[in-house]
User: Fold these one by one.
Assistant:
Number 1:
Amino acid sequence: MSTAIHWWLQRLTGALLLLLLAGHFWVEHFLTQELRRGELSYQAIAGRITHPAWQAIDIAFLIVALYHGLAGVRNIVLDYSRVGPRALRLLTWALAAVGAMWAWWGIEAFRGL
Amino acid sequence: MAGESQTYEIRVQRGGGAVSYSVVLAPRMTVLDALFIVQRTIDSTLAFRCACRVGMCGTCAVRINGRPGLACRTRPSELGRPAMDVAPLAHLPVIRDLVVSMEPFFAQWKRARPRFRPKQPEAAATAAIPPDSEFGLLAAGKRDCITCGVCFAACGVRTTSGEYLGPAAVNRALLRIADPRESGGPERLAVLNEERGGVWRCHTTFDCTEMCPKGIDLTDSIARLKRGLAARGRL
Amino acid sequence: MIPLQRWTGIALLIYLLLHIRTIHTLSEGPQAFDRALAVFRHPLFKLGEVALLATVIAHAANGLTLTLFDLGYGHRARRRIRMVAAVAGGALFLAGGVPLFLGGVMGR
């Protein structure tokens, strides 16, 4: 993959995350009185998370966040030239595997709701 | 500026530790003057580099109070303190005292293909660039690089990456790429586009721009190339 | 500047990975989820939430200003822009963090 796209995607996902996170924070902490008191429970969020539209947003959020974070780690490693090209390639695959695994766990959370 | 001479403590990083010297300086004297006073009257073994003494050659770059800069262009009277720390430039191997090897800096400089390659090498007439043309205006702000190495020493990425080109090399590459009389763009762009050492390592912290003794907006040069590379369909 | 983005980024990634594992308990049913959440009712975790907010805001504010500069804007006014980002970030932190602190840690 070309190097320029990593730069683009990191900034694009960053900007997206800003909106998604702001929304997420609002919804989870301020939407209802219950949540404002910090009383998070299944019951408090059941109405929302069974809704397919909210699920779609959450899954999109999940993927965008995982990409940004894991790509960020890769960027950090690129800053350290002591890590050779082979090790870097290995790391990239490892990060992709972590991303896939965690994305799966996140998506699975909605199964059966 | 007051005309009174003042005594300064100059702590020079030599080998493993700092050595303190006391020098009397007139207000307009520079760090380079102070180093000469030390070498001529106190300790002749002090090693440092200089040439033009007027900020044109870039030879006397050192670290003053932790910040890289030209010794001949820094006045202790303007530093606001009676003591100062002088150390060799960061990110470069120390040869002795304040003398560093510029080898890593110039190795990156050469990687960016700094030499001018004319599109028409056989042309007899000189192609003039009007100062108010697009390239003329851009070049005015980018061509003053004296390869002093200050930006290289200031760069936070160079602290951990031995592969990053560094601001000076990238800036010179931009100057060449943007020049309408020049060929050699593609090879430079390939080097600039490298993931491990190209423009993508820059984290836009402006450390280089802050320290450049010639006032070049180096971050701008690097950012222009990032945008240029990103837009040329190399996605 | 570089270490700030780096450290907040790593911290946020670690949090994200743990967070997703917690949310994953939803697939084991409402009781499992509530049991997982019960752990986080402790005031220490609530304080952690406030720290998380600070970390996110620091990373986002810095990232936004860097993106702005990369796009070519505000190079000359960079000190002012950084100041605005810091102040805006601080204000957002107070706006979100104070209620979080009062609601979660103080239980009001």
Number 2:
Amino acid sequence: MRHLLRTPSGVIGLALVAVTLVIAAVGPAIWGQEAETVNAAAALQGSSAEHPLGTDHLGRDILARVLAGGQFTVALAFLATAIGAGLGTLLGVLPAVLPRRAGRLVTGAVNALVAFPALLLAMFTAVISGLGAKGAVLGIGIAFAPSIARLTQTLSASVASADYVAAARLLRVPRWRIATRHVLPNIGEPIILNLTAALGSSLVAMSGMSFLGLGVQPPSYDWGRLLFDGFSRIYVDPMVAIGPAIAIVAAGIGFNLLGEALARSVARAPVGGKQAVGKGAAMPSSGEEPVEGAVLSVKDLTVTFPDGVTPVRGLSLTIMPGEIVGLVGESGSGKSMTANAVGGLVAYPGVVTAGHMSLCGEELSTLSEAKRRKLLGTSMAMVFQDPMASLNPALKVGGQLAEVSLVHQGAKRPAAWARAIDRLRQVHIPDPEKRARQHPHEFSGGMRQRAVIAMGLMGTPRLLIADEPTTALDVTVQRQILKLLREVSAEAGAGALFISHDIAVVSELCDRVVVMYAGRVVEELPVADLVDGASHPYTKALLASLPDMETDRDKPLASIPGHQPSPADVGEGCAFASRCALATDRCVERPPLTRYDAAHAVACWHAETRKAEVAIG
Amino acid sequence: MIIEGMTVRFGTFTAVDDVTLEVPPGSIVGLVGESGSGKSTVAKAVCGLVPYTGRVEGLDPRRIQMVFQDPYASLNPRMTVGASVAEGLSVPKARRAAEIERLLSLVSLPTGLAGRYPRELSGGQRQRVAIARALGAEPSLLVADEITSALDVSVQGAVLNLIRSLRAELNLSMLFISHNLAVVRYVSDVVAVMRKGRLVEVGPAEEVVGSPKHDYTRELLEAVPRLGG
Amino acid sequence: MFAVRRLIRFLVSLAVLVVASFAMIHLIPGDPIRAALGMNAPPELVAQRRADLGLDDPIPTQLLAYIKQLLSGEFGTSFISREPVGQIIVDRLPNTLALAALATVFALLVAVPLGMWAGIRTENGRNRGTEIGFTSTTGAAVAVPEFLYSIGLVVVFAVTLGWFPPAGRDGVISYVLPILSLAIGPIAMVARVARVETLRELSTDYIRLARAKRLPASRLYFRHLLPNTLTATLTIGGLLLTGLIAGSLLVEYVFAWPGLGMRMVESITMKDYPVAQAIILVYGGIVLVVNLVVDLLLAKLDPKSTIKEA
């Protein structure tokens, strides 16, 4: 309820529906008498103080008739909706119960009928059952049934294919129990929400039928019939038609807005997007000189969202030309957000700050917008996790590559296409001339990832950012893509930031590893030292929990108790302390990332002693 | 349990092609393969979730249980953990609560979770609940389909340890399906390698990994990323 | 392959429609001729009419005769005016189609840019005000039926302001109010769909990649976004056109538009069954053809949807 009242449309919808229902409940009792009082002397009057909406041909007050007619109107709408819901649910459930063929026939019929406008179906029924409220209600009910049937079918099909229903089947839970415990509760809510809106639609449709003279017949009257009566006088006394029209509009809008607000209030809150380009680049907070000669130099990078969620906390990173740096962490560690921040792709409410952030020696925050676009567009290439989603399905692969040259290098179309084909060849796509003219759906997963990499090579990439580029691929394809990435960065002399949850993959590809935990770097070391030289307890636990081909099968795998704090509630001290066997009182204070030698840095109070142990032992 | 000559067709596409595989009592058979190899279809067919030709013999088909890949889709969001676990139980009502507690502690979950809803649990905890639910039916075969691939590495270790300790404690037979050869090797006694619907190699885990006979197994082994390159 | 299957489905639906329109007359309880001519009609006349229409023949013979008649372009004769129904359709159908087609084009031209604009503006929950305004306005606009828009427009622009003729078909200016009445609801509906589609597409990896390529906004939105939102919009557009054809019934009635809908309402009220039957058949046929064309068009535009269908 509180959710419902949060949006103006929910409040308006609720208010309109409440008024409609109150009028329907008490209308005939209060205004019924007046609505039927014939006064020939006052016939066919326009709007006046005594009769705000005028009178009809028998001198009856139209306002009273509108207020008294609400009950019949709403009742007819409820009846039509009930018929539609009953029939629709039945049709929707039938395919699940009937033998396969008969079921498919029902589904086919429902699909064909859904495409038919409800009004047309209602007219068809009206012809058969003759003029009158009965025929119209039946017609509208029948006309609504196919769409409700379809909704029921889609919903129950999606629930019936859910894993928990499969599990229940395996547990030999009886059919009726699966229906009542698993299927119904999960489809009931959306169906009921839909019926709220359907009530509005049937009220409006019923009024339409009455307005055409095909629905309610005198001496009965509903809002549609009153509109029918008033319509012939519209040129003389518009008010006599406007009264019932407003009643229909208000009720129709009310039920519709309420249904929608209800649907919104039960829908899960949308997960914050991660993709949009943030307007401002890194804003300088405290400057320190960027590292000389680095392709990427970032100092104190922080990403925050308005609700206190801070996925990246003061991260510093340097990547030299030709160097491949692996960024490792579990889900929620902030590694992907780091990639987005470096690529300038942090979503709208997110704010990126950094001491400095420079690409190829150019400080990004001081560049003009146009220069920054060009620099990022040509010097930085990005590869994402899902190759199926990374290419635009509507455009030819070659065109998606060529546009980089068209936009940033001012190349002509033939030259841009020639370069695109050349780049596709460079990533070992066979028959690149033909492939360039194909759409992405004609490519396999590995092939698409190659095309995305080729896209990054259209400019003169100095930095390659690859965010879990092989996670969605098979191991044999992963191997090929890793090889390609190494080859590409070596040829172009570009630096690469390779983000992965898999420390083994990182160790195969990268020169240096940066381990992230709860938004911060906890350790940074050369890959060669990873197995023996890691000194942060988290890094060590991560390494130990990963089974490989030599893991002792008789010993339990290491695992880390507890879980990583979410980006919203990382505390003051060491974020890993609560899961750490070495944690002491000192860990309430956060250990700084301390550099032990040129290549090795650790953020742990206990690493120093461990370092010493290693040196002695 | 033995699968004999199992074939699964979807229209003209043959997903599983004449697979014969034995799961000896009390052992874990690991089925490994890449996407599209048909390994998950074998799991579904064994459980009777897809129609197949061929035979599955040597056990009561009603005593096969399955644990699924996605811990977020395998629990009904509108049922408490306790209610989900209770689904497969055939004990009298009076003993139900005690049985739920026993099952939850069997998978090393605090018994207090019984009243919670799945949305309040982490991925690893949900996967434990799914395992507890399956164990409640006292299965003679447990089919585990990619049960750790949606989990973080640090959590994966704990679930794998659980699987191994359950086998030791309950003498459970298991068909363990994964794309990750290292994971399959760690938990399984026997490893079967699948490719394009066919079994290409079956043997004791150390043997398949140590001295692979089939080219494809070798290719797969070489592709496994290793620490330290 | 898809086209052939779709064509077969179309023919089956058409056959069902023909049989349904035939059955309609026979499903009317009692004697439709008696009902149409009234209780006081002389029994000889009723018998004569029944014989004329072949209503005394066995049902299969009647159905066969009906189909033969349709194939030769004959639709029977009006009970009331004695006009050939075929002529009524030829005279009136173009007026209805003109209205529906113009309204559809107008609705799409306004709604798609509007929805895209709203989507781009409200991405990731920015501009909450725009979002609330857009969703409540369109939510309300969708709920108001065409005939009430037409009454409102007539009262304001024809009766009160006198800018447009209140009824009839007379020159370009007489199209304005009917088209507006038909288009407002669909504009709201399509704009919502276009916004949701836009938001969905904006969150895809390929848009993220296009942004990483630093494409200018115009290229990003028109070349990358538009084609992908069009598929869903076109599907809705098809539904829209068929809905508009039904909506035109009521709008024609309000504006006394000399179209088929107006005539259909009259014929149902006056129990002129041959006319009602033929017009329902024509409307149903149009719906089937529109759906067929939209599906074929979609298959051509979006290669993925064909694959999904198969």
